[in-house]
Structure formats: structure tokens, C-alpha cells
Amino acid sequence: MNSPANTTELPVILTGDRPTGPLHLGHFIGSLRNRVSYQQTARQFVMLADAQALTDNMDDVAKVHRNVIEVALDYLAVGIDPAQSTIFIQSQVPELTELTFYYLNLVTVARLERNPTVKEEIRLRGFERDIPAGFLTYPASQAADITAFKARLVPVGEDQIPMIEQTNEIVRRFNRIAGRPVLVEAEARVPEIGRLPGVDGKAKMSKSLGNTINLGATPDEIRSQVKRVYTDPLHLRVADPGHLEGNVAFLYLDAFDTDKAALEEMKAHYVRGGLADSLVKARLETVLQALLAPIRERRQHYEQDRAQVLQMLREGTEKAREVAARTTDDVRAALGLKYF
Amino acid sequence: MNSPANTTELPVILTGDRPTGPLHLGHFIGSLRNRVSYQQTARQFVMLADAQALTDNMDDVAKVHRNVIEVALDYLAVGIDPAQSTIFIQSQVPELTELTFYYLNLVTVARLERNPTVKEEIRLRGFERDIPAGFLTYPASQAADITAFKARLVPVGEDQIPMIEQTNEIVRRFNRIAGRPVLVEAEARVPEIGRLPGVDGKAKMSKSLGNTINLGATPDEIRSQVKRVYTDPLHLRVADPGHLEGNVAFLYLDAFDTDKAALEEMKAHYVRGGLADSLVKARLETVLQALLAPIRERRQHYEQDRAQVLQMLREGTEKAREVAARTTDDVRAALGLKYF
């Protein structure tokens, strides 16, 4: 209805982030970069999942509020274009809670407890039996987010694939009840480059571990984090042969250095021996400073005009809400919940 | 804002029914009769809980839709007056799902599983591990219903008291997060006359057991159900002494016969011996025909003008939605979910 005719045939993508902290290189490589290219080939909805972030942040609701704007700044800084992608705030589309409510009837407690993603997240957060109900049931909420926009593609990490399966189970159960295909099944799209380790070599970049390089990092911050980058602990003297496995400096260069020929040469030299870690890190710093400088500049530009950013979010949210409202209306009709 | 000044100081009552079948004498004695008197002394919201009914009726959504109107007819028939009480349809107040969504973060799965009402309902329905998530979490939904209207009084059966306790736990946790009393604690109000047994003597009147006398019953239906009323199985000959315990005819007379002196005399005669069951049942039939005739007539009157009933429901729902929207707005603000 409201979408321009030329975009309605493009596949719909839903993606987004829990706004609990600034985005970093891990987000850039794992999702943000892809979103910039998806916006040419798909109708992309980018969700600031503040409501979902609350499921385990009820003790610090101000943090979630604050980070909605910070993450929006990160989006704009990397080149997600509100004219091409619909950036919206989850909590401001209450239709999503309505869909969640009905989907909760389509999934059993046992099925939620078996969901490997939920199981792992519960373990990571140390919830055990004190799981907030909203946390156990968040697959229903995620199904609401995905189906509200009739998304066909959902970019997720490998570990999130069970969530998409659960969404599709709900879709099929709902469509059986409706007797017609009201909702659309989604497909997980796992990015080629997986998770980037932290600068310290730990599996995951995490704000609390202090092992990230944020998109808004200053040149000094970038420099000091690159110095900390984990390399080869066996590479004690420059002349020694070095190892590439688990070597974060080279993992980052693989991800960000566009001069692949020079990189291959550098790797060969490192393995052979005679290449100092400091030179590898110098190259990495050059690459990252070059990558992040324009992102930081754009971020600073938008930071100075928060009113404009809020206006952009308001418009994106209105657009998202129109789409979600149409789906919710279909869902209500299928459940016999139309009276007037 | 929209409430007349003279009603704002009255305590708010929330009450309602799951629209899964026609209402019967059990509803009349346990709640409907009280609602007619509450509407003089309280600001009463009467909810047609269609969304809650779906938690275990996803296989028959049409039944729920149909019964919303049927139950509304029952309300009007017994004298619940839309000018005094706000009668509304739960699903048409989507703010309730939004509140539910946030309250799910304030209650643990373990706490829901310990809720005695939920435990018993799960047992009754034979759900065991295949509990729909929406069923386990319905205390959060009920908390949403109660708090949305800032209800201070909630008329419930004895078995529902744990639900009100759970609501109040959520209220307290929420208010702690908010740092101010956004939500209001509620008090269970248990009616003096508890549950009425079925005509067959079974503990509960239930449509599926066929042991009810519906409010819209025809004179013939009343007559044939009274014939089935369970009395004293030891009272074989008229001359035998009769027993009152578990004697449904006398339980019903206790509930509905307004001539208490005559009833006490009849009881004494029955216990002494010499009073035939048929005479007791004749009295019961007279009482019930007199009680139900005006209810049936009013019901038939409204049945002929369903458009008017729908209009009444539409207006009540709009009014309820305004109140719920104000609470939801407060809840969003307390959670930092206001951006624009």
C-alpha cells in the first residue's frame, strides 16, 4: 500500500540489534557491512530491539534507552541509509507484542526449553531456574518480529538457526489454524565470515571484557587496542617461524585488509620467520584507521544533530508500524478477533 | 479524563468471563448477581476475555468469537448496565498484550510453575509437559488486565487467590523498577456463596457435562433440568427422613429462594420425613422459572438487535482502551521506552 511499487517485489529482510552497548568491529564484519549491501537488493527492516533487550536488563532500563540512539548513530555511520532501509524501534511498534501474545499459544513450554539457542543463552547468563518468563518465551517474540514484516530472509549467526526453525514452526501452526497462508516462512542467512574474536583472542568481542574495537573508537583507542591484539605466543624472536592459527592480528587482516596479495605475502613471511609482530600490527593499525576514520566522521556528524536522528527513527518506526499493523490485522481476522 | 467526576473516586473493579459457552446459574450466583450490585458502588470494568480463552482454544477460534456476543447478551439480560459498567472485549484492547509482554520479564518460569491455580488448571486440562506457553504465562496476562485499569478489587473464586498474589508481586517489582507507584495492588474479593454444583451433584457446572441451567434456558429446559436435580439417594420413600447435605435441590433453594422462612420450614419437614422430592423440586422449579423468565425476556429482546449490542461493546471497548492506554503510557515511560 505505502511501499513504492518498485520495492514490493524485493525479498524482505529483517535484521537488527539489541541496544545494550556501542557496536564494534565484530558487528561490522558479521552484519552491518552486509546490511549496507542488502539495502540495494532487498526491502530491509532494521530493528532496534529495545523491548527484547529488556528481557534481561530490567535492572538497567536507562542503559537500553540510551543505547537505542547510540546504535542508531552506528547504523548511520556505517552507511545504512534510512532512505533505503527502514530503521525502527521495536517497542514503538506495539503490534509486535500482540503477535507475541498469540504466538505463545502456538508453542509449548517444553519446546521452548528444548530450543538450543535459548538453552545456551540461559547457560551463559547463569539463569538456571530463575529464568525470567520473558526470556524463555523470546522465540515467540522473535517470531513476531520476523512475521510482522513477512520477512523471507533473516541474517543470523549459526547459533541462531534454531530460532528461525522455531519461527517457522509457529508460522506453519498458525497457517493451519487460519486455513490459508497468512504468515510467511523465513530462511536464515548465515554470513560467510563468522564471529570475530576479541583483541585478546577470546572467542567473543564483548564490552564487559574490554576486548572490542568500537565503530566510534578514536585514533588513540584504535592504536591502543591494536597493541593488545593477540598474536602467536610461540613467536618469541623475530627470526622464529610464526603461526597463523588463532592469530588475531591475521584474522583481523583477513577480514579487513583489501590488499589480499600483499596480505598473502605478509603471511608467508610471518610463517617463514623474520617478520616482527610489531610490523603486522602496524599494518593492521593502518587498515583499521583507514576503515574507521570515515565511519567515525559520519558518526560525529550525526551526533551533532540528534534531533535529525530521532526524526529519522520516528519516520522509520511509523513505516514499520504500518506494515506490522497490516499483518496484525490479518492475524486477528484469522483468529476470529474482529467484531466491529 | 473521560470519566465523570463523580465516579473517579469509586474503587475500580475488574471482572469478566472467558467466552467459551453460555453463562448459567453458577455464574449468576457466583458473580453476575454481584456485578449488578457493584455497579452502584464501584467503577466496574467487565471483560470478555476472548484473548485469554484462546490460550487453550486455538483449535476452535470460531467458538470464542461466537460466545463473545452470547456472553454479552447474558450480561445485558441479568442487568449489567453499560451506562454504569464498562463492558469490553479483551482482544480489542491491544495495550493489554503490551503490558503482558513487559510483565513477563518480572516473573520467573519457576514462579509461574509454582502458581497453584496454574498447576491445577494444567492438571485439569491434562497438559503436563505440552503446556502451551501462553497458558503457563497467563498470570502475566491477568496481571496486565488488572493493572491496566488500576483495579483495586477483583472478584474471584477462592481457587484464584494465588493469581491475585502473583499480580501483586509483579506490581511491586514494577514499582521498584519505576521508583514510584505506577501500578496499583489489587485485592481478591471472594463471594460469600461459592461454587454451585451441577444439577447432577458434580462439583462444577460445566457445559460439557450437560449439568447446567443456562441463563437463556427455555421453560421446558428449566423443567427438564430440575427433574434431573440430585437429591438424597437415601430418601427412598416419602416417609423416610431426608438429608440436606449434598442435596442439590436444597443447595439451589438456599441460593435462589427469597422466602427464607418457608424454605426453613420445608427443610425441617424434609429432614423429619414425609416430604416428597417431587414437591421440593416443584418449589425449585417455581423459583427458577420466576428468576429466569425476566432474564430470558431481556435476552431475547437484545438478541433481536445484535447491532445495538455490538455498538454497546464498541463503546465500552473504546472507553476501556483509553484507560488502558494511559496506564501503558505510564509503563513505557517508567521503562525508558519513550523516545519521541
Task: Describe this protein's structure.
Chains A, B: It comes from Robbsia betulipollinis. Chains A, B: Belongs to the class-I aminoacyl-tRNA synthetase family. Chains A, B: Pfam families: tRNA-synt_1b. Chains A, B: Its EC number is 6.1.1.2. The structure is a homodimer of 340-residue chains. Chain A is mainly α and 340 residues long. Chain A has 2 domains: 5-196 and 306-334, HUPs (Rossmann fold, 3-Layer(aba) Sandwich), CATH 3.40.50.620; 216-299, Tyrosyl-Transfer RNA Synthetase. Chain A has 14 helices and 5 strands. Chain A has helices at 25-41, 50-54, 61-78, 95-103, 109-114, 116-125, 133-136, 138-148, 161-178, 219-227, 248-256, 260-272, 277-303, 306-334, and strands at residues 12-17, 43-48, 85-89, 153-155, 187-189. A 3-stranded parallel beta sheet of chain A has the order 1-2-3. In chain A, strands 4-5 form a two-stranded parallel ribbon. Chain A is elongated, with a radius of gyration of 22 Å. Chains A and B meet through helix 2, helix 3, helix 4, helix 5 and helix 7 of A and helix 2, helix 3, helix 4, helix 5 and helix 7 of B.
